[in-house]
Amino acid sequence: MSIIRKFLHRIAFTILFVLVASSAWAQSESMDELYKKALKEGGTLNFYGTLAQINAEKILPVFEKRFPGIRINHVDATSDKLVTRVITEARGGKTIADVLQVNLSDVVQAHDQKLLLELVTPEAAEYPDGLKGSFWVSSDLDIYIAGWNTNLVKKDEEPKQFEDFADPKWKNRLIAEPRDVDLLIGLAKYKFKSDEQAIALMNKIAANNPEFHKGHSQLVELLIAGQAAACFTCYSHHFPRRIQKGAPLNYMLTEGVAAIGSTAILKNAPHPNTALLFARWIISREGQKAMAAGGRTTAHPKVEPAEKIRPAKIYPISATDIQEYPKYEKIWKDVFKLR
């Protein structure tokens, strides 16, 4: 073997050793041991996350109470803006965020820019493959389901599955969000395991002339106002509290398509141990219970949300599926004649 080949072999071995060692370390160290290291980093966690204020003010203080001496600096914005910020900061030669908690599609974008840490943690072992990857784990879900106005939909015509909306009786009675191509992807990949079947269903629903309105909260308000009988791309978490306040609503919990909210660690995080501590905690059963109490739809299969918002069957959109988003977006727009 030449000197150069020996040198390259030694480098490759060293890199492999470091990766294996770091992975083993992440799996063997307890959170309490990690907490001691985190305290030495200054007591700050820079958290770039899309948690709405109403959720954040209930969830983040639970972490701060569990690990005294660590304060969370929460930078709140939309998912796309947070990722753009992370990428811009990196191009400027600096990393400010420790943890990124945004939509999986945006986490994938940050990973494509080589900004995220590849890491396996023991807490991730309890998650199914569709809810974790080599650089992310799902922290919460937004689940697309069907909902309806109970004054306009009779008990015997309530939908039990998405296929029910192919029935002509729904003509001119449906609404949806124009950007919800996730529904098509979830049905094609995980329910039917067939693009042809999923597209055929969408074509039948399109024949019923649904109206499209931007904003999922808007969809539910339109249902309450009686502007439509049913919605086939509503978020499940928008229904319980409105129903509790007397809104004439009901919603489908037999099946749903899940858009994943995911947690990842920045590769050059200024507080690496603190970042790892938070990332492990938020996906642990303890952290997921805090997420549930804070009003989020939990991703952990053993931790139920505080309200009935997680369907019996869930079709999650994975990181691999996101790579095919342009293909399905074109189909979605063509079927429903959207610009």
How many domains? The number is: 2
SS strand fraction: 15-25%
Shape: globular
CATH superfamily of the largest domain: Periplasmic binding protein-like II
Specify the CATH class of the largest domain.
Answer: Alpha Beta
What is the helical fraction, as a range of percent? Answer: 40-55%
Query: N-to-C SSE series?
Result: HHEHEHEHEEHHEHEHEEHHEEHH
- Between the first and last Cα atoms, what is the distance in angstroms? 60 Å
Contiguous runs where pLDDT drops below 50 for at least 5 residues: 6-27
Sheet bearing the most strands, described? Answer: 11 strands, mixed
| Annotated CATH architecture of the largest domain | 3-Layer(aba) Sandwich
CATH topology of the largest domain: D-Maltodextrin-Binding Protein, domain 2
Total strand segments: 11
Structural Rg? 22 Å
The number of helices is: 13
In round numbers, the mean pLDDT is: 92
Helix-strand makeup class = alpha/beta
Can you walk through the features of this model?
It is built from 13 helices and eleven strands. The chain has two domains: 3-141 and 260-310, D-Maltodextrin-Binding Protein, domain 2, CATH 3.40.190; 142-258 and 321-336, D-Maltodextrin-Binding Protein, domain 2. It is an alpha/beta fold. Strand 1 (44-49), helix 3 and strand 2 (71-76) form a beta-alpha-beta unit. It starts with a helix and ends with a helix. Strands 1, 2, 3, 4, 5, 6, 7, 8, 9, 10 and 11 form an eleven-stranded mixed sheet that branches. 42% of the residues lie in helices and 18% in strands.
